[in-house]
Amino acid sequence: MSIQPADALAIHPDNAIVWHDDRLYLLDQRILPGETRFIACGSAADTARAIKDMVVRGAPAIGITAAYGVVLGARARAGADPLSWRQALAADIEALAASRPTAVNLFWALERMRRLAETLDTAEPVPALLAEAQRIHREDIAANRAMGELGAALMQGPTDVITHCNAGALATGGYGTALGVVRSAHAAGKVRMVYADETRPWLQGSRLTAWELAQAGIPVTVQSDNAAASMMARGEIGWVIVGSDRIAANGDVCNKIGTYALAVLARHHGVGFMVAAPTSTIDMGVASGADIPIEARDPDEVLACGGKRIGPAGVMAHNPVFDVTPAALVDCIVTERGVIRRPDAEHIRALMAGT
Ligand code: MRU
């Protein structure tokens, strides 16, 4: 079900995931910026579908959304059977986990909810699970603010920046990871211009990043993905700043397809390459980027642009939507717990010790 903006939910990139009146509302990212409309999710199945269909996208955002999906599942399961809701809820958690494969924040948030559900010895699990989902949401915003400060402190400025995909408020609980750094750095006078790669084929850059930055009053120029090399050659780009969907234990960074190419270009041109991601994006269970499952979406996304078919009928296309940047090409990973320069297995292990 979709509802109109007039229905009391403020339209703002920082407000894209809203728990309101016992329901989950998601700002529909498929139609932004042309249309601003929330989708209401009333069940775990609705929530899993919204993640799969990319109503909501971005690693931390889908983790937070899935956590609220567990709350919706628990409400229905406990209502149907107060004694054995926990077993039934496991099926909802499984369905939510099957919605997208690459961003580890999804599995991290579901695991946190599952662990809590296991400890709840009650016929009314919803209050505790809702409190946990809201805690995950709040913690993500706080992490983004901390990363914003830490990332901005690394920049000399004023300089131009390239970003890829959308790692902003829309992709998170609010404020953003890479765009959180940009927001903090801009507030400190360190960002002249943000070049937002359009990010074919789903256009997260030209649709979402450009919308967010314009709303925040930060100068933004959209460029085709192919323009990055010549922009860097001009010598005015100080940093490439991106988010991540999963960081392996050796520091390899998985992010939107095209990120690896940017990292190669950045190293060639002496441009800094910064990844901003909360520790919920670090997966100590995968040794290297080679072990990260890369989602392939419908090839028709590549054969079309903005919903209009452009490729001839009958041709093939391939559409892997993430790639892996080797740790050796990453200058720094900014997390809420601190900055890792020249990431490798040892630095990542030290950062994650105690989790
Ligand atoms: O396919 P998407 O739009 O979910 O991919 C999102 C990205 O690749 C983002 O750059 C990444 O999740 C970092 S977001 C904080």
Describe this structure in words.
The protein is an alpha/beta fold. The chain has two domains: 2-141, Four Helix Bundle (Hemerythrin (Met), subunit A); 148-353, Rossmann fold (3-Layer(aba) Sandwich), CATH 3.40.50.10470. The protein is 38% helix and 19% strand. It is built from ten helices and 17 strands. The strands form four sheets. It has a seven-stranded mixed beta sheet with strand order 7-6-5-8-11-16-17, with helices on both faces. The chain is globular. Residues 57-60, 103, 165, 167, 171-172, 177, 204, 243-245, 255-256, 321 line the site of 5-S-methyl-1-O-phosphono-5-thio-D-ribulose (MRU).
CATH topology of the largest domain: Rossmann fold
String of helices and strands? EEEEHHHHHEHEHEHEEEHEEEEEEEH
Q: Give me the side-by-side strand order of the main sheet.
A: 7-6-5-8-11-16-17
Q: How many individual β-strands?
A: 17
Supply the number of structural domains: 2
List the helices and strands and how they pair.
Elements: E1 2-3, E2 17-20, E3 23-27, E4 38-41, H1 44-52, H2 59-80, H3 85-97, H4 104-119, H5 126-153, E5 159-163, H6 178-187, E6 191-197, H7 204-215, E7 220-223, H8 228-233, E8 237-242, E9 246-248, E10 253-256, H9 259-269, E11 272-276, E12 282-283, E13 304-305, E14 308-309, E15 322-325, E16 332-335, E17 338-341, H10 345-352
Parallel strand pairs: 5-6, 5-8, 6-7, 8-11, 9-12, 11-16
Antiparallel strand pairs: 1-4, 2-3, 3-4, 9-10, 10-15, 13-14, 16-17
The structure holds 5-S-methyl-1-O-phosphono-5-thio-D-ribulose.
